[in-house]
Amino acid sequence: MSSDFDPRVQFWTDAWSRHLETYLDAVPRTGIWLERMIGGAPKTLELAGGSCRDSRYLFQRGWDATGSDFDDKTLAYLRQRFAALRHPLLQLDAFATGLPDRAFDLTFHNGFFVLFRDDAQIIALLREQARISRKAMVIVVHNALNQTLWKRFVRLAASDPIYDVRFFTPPEISGLVRQSGITFRKLEVRKFGGRADALYRARIKRLPNPIRGLARHLVPRLYSLQSWTQTERIAVIVRL
What we know:
The protein is of the alpha/beta class. It has a single domain, classed as 3-Layer(aba) Sandwich (Rossmann fold), CATH 3.40.50.150. The protein is built from 8 helices and 9 strands. Strands 3-2-1-4-5-9-6 form a 7-stranded mixed β-sheet, with helices on both faces. The protein has a two-stranded antiparallel ribbon with strand order 7-8. The radius of gyration is 17 Å and the shape is globular.
């Protein structure tokens, strides 16, 4: 995130200091989903990673996966906390990464574009992401068709501005990809997040979850069976 485009850079630095531990404790859903949907362990970059839990998960699974964020304080904390893992981390401005063209096979982010109300900012981010991507790029945003989730975020935003984010419809986010002028072979819109995530829990209704060990294989597939109104986020795979 660039201070030239978004004046709330300091806000997000402060917000991460309050919420980082919660994100670190969460299941790396995007990493698990990418492992199932993309596969092949490509050279991967997580943009605007914050906790970078998803690229760290992929790294632990044998991928050549790098995390990144604009906030040096967050990255310094992650380097210290996970020093033994040696997961590579980069400080990057997602609008101008300074990386070579086609530097990574796959680039992805989850919940990044929801921070921007201006379509011109998102288009600029898409073009830079495409420039540094060789095979594919993945974008995950909050789903406006899930009105229950949207209303919950509106209520929470009244006391915590971190929930004041933009929601998208599937045609809206895929339309922005097309408006960006990126040349791509294929654009796939997938469902991501929802009731199936309960299978990741250690316990369900206070009882041990008997299929937790299979959740990594099942949950990404089960997303497709739910309705859009029950789906938490929209995942767009852009095949370059």
